[in-house]
Amino acid sequence: MPNNRILIVDDNELNLDLAQYVLEADGFVVDRALHVDEAWARLRARRPALALVDIQLPGTDGLSLVRAIKATPDLAGLPVIAFTAFAMQGDEQRFRAAGCDGYVAKPIDVHSFAATVRRYLGGGGT
């Protein structure tokens, strides 16, 4: 069975709840983390197929987490998607320079969110 586990790292529980609900309704298994330390615990416990990482996290920011994931040999190939409300001009290049494989803007579109995540799992993006 293919890995359908998604890790969502976001300090806003409402964002986590909505994203989890939409992804689980589409057949994904969702792990949640509210901060970077919790994200590392989840990554060590079960490797997800993809991680959605909020850029604005308390303490260590999301891009620092992305850089660390990409620098970890057994996680370097993990698709990591910036999950952010801050998608201004130039941000996509900044996210990609940090190692993100793409980004999903918040608030999510509940009708297309799961399909967008599936596209990233298939190697394509938006």
Task: Describe the structure concisely for a colleague.
This protein has 126 residues and is an alpha/beta fold. The chain has helices at residues 13-25, 36-45, 62-70, 91-97, 113-121; strands at residues 5-9, 29-33, 50-53, 80-84, 102-105. A five-stranded parallel β-sheet has the order 2-1-3-4-5, with helices on both faces.
Number of strands: 5
**How much of the sequence is in beta strands?**
15-25%
Spatial arrangement of strands, main beta sheet? 2-1-3-4-5
Secondary-structure element string: EHEHEHEHEH
Radius of gyration: 13 Å
- In round numbers, the mean pLDDT is 92
CATH class designation: Alpha Beta
Q: Which spans have pLDDT < 50 for at least 5 consecutive residues?
A: none
Oligomer: single chain
Descriptive tags:
126 residues, Rossmann fold, 5 helices
Structure commentary:
The protein has 126 residues and is α/β, with parallel strands linked by helices. The chain has one domain (5-121): 3-Layer(aba) Sandwich (Rossmann fold). The protein has five helices and five strands, in the order βαβαβαβαβα. It has a five-stranded parallel beta sheet, with helices on both faces. The two termini are 26 Å apart.
Task: Outline the secondary-structure elements.
Blueprint: E1 5-9, H1 13-25, E2 29-33, H2 36-45, E3 50-53, H3 62-70, E4 80-84, H4 91-97, E5 102-105, H5 113-121
Parallel strand pairs: 1-2, 1-3, 3-4, 4-5
